[in-house]
Amino acid sequence: MILVSACLCGVNCKYDGNNNLNEYIYELLKQGKLVPVCPEQLGGMSTPRHPSEIVGGSAKDVLEGKAKVINKKGEDVTRFFVKGAYETLNIARTFNCKAAILKAKSPSCGSGKIYDGTFEGRLIDGNGITSELLIKNGVEVIDETDVAAIKDIVERMS
After folding, report:
1. Are 143 and 111 within 8 A, CB to CB?
2. DSSP string, the chain
3. Over 90: is that where the pLDDT of 158 sits?
4. How many angstroms separate the most distant Cα atoms in the chain?
5. Alpha-carbon dihedral sign for residues 6, 147, 145, 60
6. pLDDT tens, 58-101?
7. At what angle do helices 147-157 and 23-30 cross, to 10 degrees?
8. The model's pTM
9. pLDDT tens digits, 29-51
């Protein structure tokens, strides 16, 4: 099985109450190849919610208690992101997921690039909290923009 951001499957769990439906990924879900998760909801956050970004360090720093996740209102929401990451890891272990297709740029699910913590739309190198934890625990993480990698993972995991 392959873990996937639920928003990519059409679930309205995105911070603004919408989704990021990807038709190709939705077809994989209908074929029973994916396990959808929303780390932010699993961590106890509501939908909709204020957008959040990592501030003061990397996802690794957040997991080590050295940086925070702050929402656009200035509230510290770190505990929700960390809890959601660990809940997602538990689901990955339960379903023996060796790979994950996660939402690009997200402070939870982003892989390779995330927003810089200023809420000005600037990207920096880095991972979201959930991506970082999954990678640390041997789960291969890619984002929905890499269609070739998705097809490769699906073929390998089938």
Report:
1. yes
2. -EEEEGGGGT-S-STTS-----HHHHHHHHTT-EEEE-HHHHTT--SS---EEEESS-HHHHHTTSSEEEETTS-B-HHHHHHHHHHHHHHHHHTT--EEEE-TB-TTT--SEEE-SSSSS-EEE---HHHHHHHHTT-EEEETT-HHHHHHHHHHH-
3. no
4. 44
5. positive
6. 999 999 999 999 999 999 999 999 999 999 999 999 999 999 99
7. 10
8. 0.97
9. 999 999 999 999 999 999 999 99
Q: How far is CA 45 from CA 49, 50, 108, 109, in A?
A: 7, 10, 12, 15
Q: Tell me the C-alpha distance between 36 and 55, whole Å.
A: 27
pLDDT tens string 100-148:
999 999 999 999 999 999 999 999 999 999 999 999 999 999 999 999 9
Report how far residue 118's alpha carbon sits from residue 28's, in angstroms, rounded to the nearest whole number: 35
